[in-house]
TrEMBL record:
One of its GO terms (molecular function) is NAD+ binding. The keyword Amino-acid biosynthesis applies. InterPro entries: 6-PGluconate_DH-like_C_sf (IPR008927), ACT-like_dom_sf (IPR045865), NAD(P)-bd_dom_sf (IPR036291), PDH_C (IPR046825), PDH_N (IPR046826), Preph/Arog_dehydrog (IPR050812), Prephen_DH (IPR003099). Pathway: Amino-acid biosynthesis. PANTHER family: PREPHENATE DEHYDROGENASE, PREPHENATE DEHYDROGENASE [NADP(+)]. The keyword Oxidoreductase applies. Keywords: Amino-acid biosynthesis, Aromatic amino acid biosynthesis, Oxidoreductase. GO terms for biological process: tyrosine biosynthetic process. This is Prephenate dehydrogenase. It comes from the Bacteria. Belongs to the prephenate/arogenate dehydrogenase family.
Length: 364
C-alpha cells in the first residue's frame, strides 16, 4: 500500500456523499475506516458498497486517531461535541459547508476545541447518499481548514495530512473568512441557479424547448436538495445576504437601463456591466491555477454516435496537442454535438489543421 499520513483507524460519522467518499478514498490507501450513521439502512448500504466497516463491529478495538463528522449543518456542532467527549484522544473535524456556526456552538458548550478543527472540501455532486460516494471526489480540489485561536499544531498536521491523502489541496483560513468566501463562490450561485430555474415553471409558451447549453449550465445545480440547502443558507445567512444585496443592486441597475433603452447612456450601463462580468470570469482559475485568458477555444462538431468523443480525443492526442479543458454541448433537435476544446494559443492553428485533415468539422 502507498504510505499515508493518516493512521488507522479513522472514524467517519455520516454515510452520505462526503462521508462515503472519504471512506472509499481512505480504504483505497489501506486505512481502516469505521462508519457510523443515524440511519441503519444508509449505514448498511455504505458498508455493503465498501466505504468502511460498521463502527459497532469495532467496539472494544483501537480508538480512532481522527474523527470526520459528515452530517447536516444544523446538527454538526452537536455531533462534533459528542465525538469530542466520546474520544478524548482523537482529533475531530467536520466537513460542513459553514464553519463559524459549529465553532461558536462548541465554544458555547465548553468543548475542548484544541482537538477540533473544522474543514470543508470544496467538492460535491448534485446527487447525495451513500451510492454517490467516489474515491476520487476530492482529487485536485481545495480543502479548507478553518483554524482558530486554540488550534494545536498537532491537529493542524493531522487534518492537513488527511486532506493530502485524499488528493485535495489544503487551504487554511479563519472560519469567518471561509464563510464570506463560500457565500460568494457557492451559496449565492446556488440561489441564482435556483431562482433562474424557478422562472421556468411559469413557461407557458414552450420556451424551454429552445433551451441551449447556456441555460443548462446555469441551472445545473438547481436540482440540489432543498432541505440541505435551506440548512446551509440559514447557517450562513448574513454573508450570503450581503452578496445577494449587491447582486440585487446590479440587477436593478441593468433592469432600469433596459427599461430606458431608448435614452442616452443606457447602452453604456449595460455594456459596462457585461464587461465587468468578463473581468470576473477571467479571475476564475483554469488548469493548474492559470488564467482562463491564456487559452483559445476550438469548437468541433461531432455526430451523436457511440465512440465519436473517444475518437476525437484520440485524434487530438495523435496531433500531440495538450487539452487544457473541454466541454460538450448538444445541439437542440439534432444528432450533432459541439465539443469545445481549450488549448494554448500557440497550438490552435496546429489543432485545427490536424483535425480538419482527419475529417472533423470545425465550427469555430
Amino acid at each position: 500500500m502507498t504510505p499515508t499520513r493518516t493512521n488507522s483507524p479513522v472514524r467517519v460519522v455520516g454515510a452520505g456523499l462526503l462521508g462515503t467518499s472519504v471512506g472509499h478514498a481512505l480504504r483505497r490507501l489501506g486505512v481502516d475506516v469505521q462508519l457510523d450513521d443515524i440511519s441503519p439502512s444508509v449505514l448498511q448500504l455504505a458498508v455493503d458498497y465498501g466505504a468502511g466497516t460498521l463502527a459497532a463491529d469495532a467496539a472494544g478495538g483501537e480508538a480512532p486517531r481522527i474523527v470526520v463528522v459528515c452530517v447536516p449543518p444544523d446538527v454538526t456542532g452537536q455531533v462534533v461535541a459528542a465525538e469530542l467527549d466520546r474520544w478524548p484522544d482523537a482529533i475531530v473535524t467536520d466537513v460542513a459547508s459553514v464553519k463559524s456556526a459549529p465553532l461558536a456552538e462548541l465554544v458555547a458548550r465548553g468543548a475542548d476545541i484544541s482537538r477540533y478543527l473544522g474543514s470543508h472540501p470544496m467538492a460535491g455532486r448534485e446527487t447525495g447518499g451513500p451510492l454517490s460516494g467516489r474515491a476520487d471526489l476530492f482529487v485536485g480540489r481545495p480543502w479548507v481548514i478553518a483554524h482558530h485561536e486554540q488550534t494545536s499544531v498537532f491537529a493542524l498536521q493531522e487534518i492537513e495530512g488527511l486532506a493530502l491523502d485524499l488528493g485535495a489541496t489544503p487551504v487554511t483560513m479563519t472560519a469567518q473568512d471561509h464563510d464570506r468566501a463560500v457565500a460568494l463562490v457557492s451559496h449565492v450561485p446556488q440561489l441564482v441557479s435556483t431562482l433562474l430555474a424557478s422562472r421556468l415553471v411559469d413557461d407557458e409558451d414552450g420556451a424551454t424547448a429552445l433551451a441551449g447549453q447556456g441555460l443548462r449550465d446555469l441551472t445545473r445545480i438547481a436540482s440540489s436538495d432543498p432541505v440541505l440547502w435551506t440548512q446551509i443558507l440559514t447557517a450562513n445567512a448574513a454573508p450570503t445576504a450581503a452578496v445577494l444585496r449587491k447582486l440585487q443592486a446590479d440587477l436593478d441597475k441593468v433592469a432600469s437601463a433596459l427599461e430606458r433603452s431608448h435614452e442616452r447612456g443606457s447602452g453604456r450601463i449595460i455594456a459596462e456591466q457585461l464587461a465587468t462580468g468578463n473581468a470576473g470570469v477571467a479571475r476564475l482559475p483554469g488548469k493548474h491555477g492559470s488564467s482562463r485568458r491564456e487559452f483559445d477555444s476550438v469548437t468541433v462538431m461531432i455526430d451523436d454516435k457511440p465512440g465519436q468523443l473517444a475518437k476525437l480525443m484520440g485524434d487530438v492526442g495523435d496531433a500531440q496537442v495538450n487539452v487544457e479543458d473541454f466541454r460538450m454541448e448538444h445541439a437542440q433537435a439534432s444528432n450533432v454535438g459541439l465539443v469545445v476544446i481549450s488549448v494554448v494559443p500557440s497550438a490552435t492553428a496546429k489543432l485545427v489543421d490536424e483535425l480538419e485533415q482527419r475529417g472533423w468539422r470545425i465550427a469555430a
